[in-house]
Amino acid sequence: MAVWLGKNVAKYISNHAPIKVNPNGVDLRISEVWYIHPESEVIIKGSERTITPEKSKIEPKEDGFYHLEHGVYEVRMANETEIPLTATGLILPRSTLNRLGMIKSETAVADSGYKGFMTQTFFVPVRKFKIHKDEAWVQLIFIDNKDISDVKYSGHWQGEKPKQ
Q1: Which of 137, 142, 126 is nearest to 76 (CA)?
Q2: Are 60 and 66 contacting, i.e. CB atoms less than 8 angstroms apart?
Q3: What are the residues facing 124 on neighbouring strands?
């Protein structure tokens, strides 16, 4: 397994928002935060994906911070990403968030050929967590596939866009 250099990963990220290029990946900012109610009911069956009650969009306050309380949040990346057929993408939490009490669900695997604005789920176990709207939440890394994929990802989330 070989991890790509950050400067090479950056070539597959749109420039909708600034990114930070690291030695082995890129830090991504987010464009949307959605609160997932703890009493939600989720149904996944084939192409059906429903959640009741619907997620609630959280906006940054006038001070530029998202004010998050204990709970679960879906966040959408601010940059469109395309995963080349020669790689698999892994989306990992920035260690700063881990060190200060925010937990990201297991990493998402971005299959070869995926293109869209990725989302991630975070859990805030502390009473309050303030994070500025311009902070990066995750680092995206690419690892080489043993062979070039002969098929592109074509699942439910291909081409996902911001919900706004």
Answers
A1: 137
A2: yes
A3: 71
Cα separation, 29 vs 60, whole angstroms: 13
Report if residue 58 sits inside a domain.
yes
Q: What is the pLDDT of residue 106?
A: 67
CATH of the domain at 67: 2.70.40.10
* Token reading at 117: 């604005």
- The secondary element (H helix, E strand) that includes residue 8 is helix 6-9
Residue 63: give the domain boundaries.
6-39+53-144
d(C-alpha 92, C-alpha 124), whole Å: 16
Number of domains present in the structure of the chain: 1
Q: What is the pLDDT of residues 2-22, one digit of tens each?
A: 999 999 999 999 988 999 999
CB of 83 within 8 A of CB of 113? yes
- The Cα 103–Cα 97 span in angstroms is 7
124-125-129-135 Cα dihedral, nearest 10 degrees = -40
